[in-house]
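Following up on my earlier thread - several people asked me to post the actual chain instead of describing it. Fair enough. Here it is, all 96 residues.
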Amino acid sequence: MTIDTVNVITLLVSLYAVIGVAVGVAFVMRVVNRVDSSATGAGLMFRLTILPAAAALWPVTLRLVARASASPAPHAVAGQEHGTVRPAAQDTGGTR
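Reply from S.P.:
Thanks for posting it. Predicted structure:
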């Protein structure tokens, strides 16, 4: 491996890390509440705990943000709790 190859790899890894930190910090500070309503009001320790994963997996984090932006907030959907939606009660049309 030549020094130029090592420099290119180092540059790419550094670029990935810088983008990851930027996306991770933005996600932890502003977006996590839209993705998971149970994170609302979470403290600093929770946010610091998820920051490394959000930064390292920034492409996945961006996909989550895109899905959260495209759909209504989890607390706005009736019957939705922690990412699951309960089926609506079926009306059989008969009497009890």
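The chain is about 60% helix and 5% strand. That should answer part of your original question.
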